[in-house]
Amino acid sequence: MRVVVLTKPVPDTSGDESFEADLTLDRASLAPVINPNDEYALEAALRLAETMPGTEITLLTMAPAESWAGLSKGLAVGANQAVMVTDPALEGSCIVGTANVLAAALRKLEFDLILAGTDTPDGRAGVVCSAVAALLQIPFISHAGSIDVRDDRVVVSRTRDDGHETLDAPLPAVVAVTQQIGDLRYPNLRGIMAARSRRPTSWSLADLDVAGAAGGAAATTATLHVEPCEIRTPTRVVRGDADAAVHEIVAFLADRRLIP
Q1: Does the residue 242 lie in any domain?
Q2: Any idea what the CATH number is for the domain that residue 99 is in?
Q3: Can you list the positions of beta strands (E) in the chain?
Q4: pTM for this one?
Q5: Is the residue at 120 inside a domain?
Q6: Mean pLDDT of the chain
Q7: Domain range for residue 49?
Q8: Residue ranges of the alpha helices (H) in 88-231?
Q9: 127-162: per-residue pLDDT in tens?
Q10: For the stretch 42-60, what's the b/e string if a residue is b when 16 or more beta carbons lie within 10 angstroms of its beta carbon?
Q11: Which of 91, 99, 76, 70 is nearest to 11 (CA)?
């Protein structure tokens, strides 16, 4: 079983984001970390490997070379290898360019299953997985809460507003997972030490024969305006006797004309 996990380094959201003059995100100002949603995908891959001996897990990312430090955690927890598509010409890539580059990289890899998070905190588009599947012309299943592989088919369970459903698709396929999978396990000391000396295989756009397919010049979208979110007022907590608390809450809502 060959599993590829799409990963992306994103700025650590515990810090304050800033932007360049062209309104692109200043990624150098914050330390890169693995996209939290991609961590769920990696955990799903590790669990499959536990039940399917011989499974190989490959991390695939498109990112600047200097962001590798934030992604090496993936090798520390158990991924077998990593491939990084890195090229100065990729700066400013849009969703379309990103999908084209990842699809080209996947065509050079051998895989049975591609896993990824639903979206990223720096983009929030949530369509790269489906775009990659469309470019590769293979099945795509979104919002997976659990994943199993049976008889060359991937079986996914996911939650709906009105209940649960189970879907399956023939391999190879792309599956986007949710936090229902569970948090990524902690790396042990041995894994951390081993990951420090390992580097990803690096490919350029020329290696993939997709020069000009990504980057700012080929971008189909642009950021026109950026402004900070409105600062939320402090939370008001009502404590004490239940009856008195109800009256206080009703009065609070009525004063703001949220209830008649």
Answers
A1: no
A2: 3.40.50.620
A3: 2-6, 9-11, 32-34, 56-62, 81-85, 113-117, 140-144, 146-150, 153-160, 163-170, 173-177, 201-203
A4: 0.84
A5: yes
A6: 89
A7: 2-218
A8: 95-108, 128-136, 189-196, 205-208
A9: 999 999 999 999 999 999 999 999 999 999 998 888
A10: bbbbbbbbeeeeebbbbbb
A11: 70
Residues with Cβ within 8 Å of residue 95, at least 6 apart in sequence: 123, 125, 127, 128, 131, 220, 221
The answer to whether residue 223 is domain-embedded is: no
Identify the bridge partners of residue 169 per DSSP, sorted by sequence position: 154
Distances (CA, A) of 217 to 87, 89, 213, 222, 225: 14, 9, 9, 11, 19
Residue whose tokens read 């897990």? 57
Phi, psi of 145 (to 5 degrees): -100, -20
Domain count for the chain: 1
Q: For residue 12, give both structure tokens.
A: 């650590």
Amino acid at 64: P
The CA-CA-CA angle for residues 62, 104, 131, to 5°, reads 80
**Torsion-angle region of 167 (φ positive above 0: left; ψ -120 to 50: alpha; else: beta):** beta
- Domain annotation covers residue 251: no
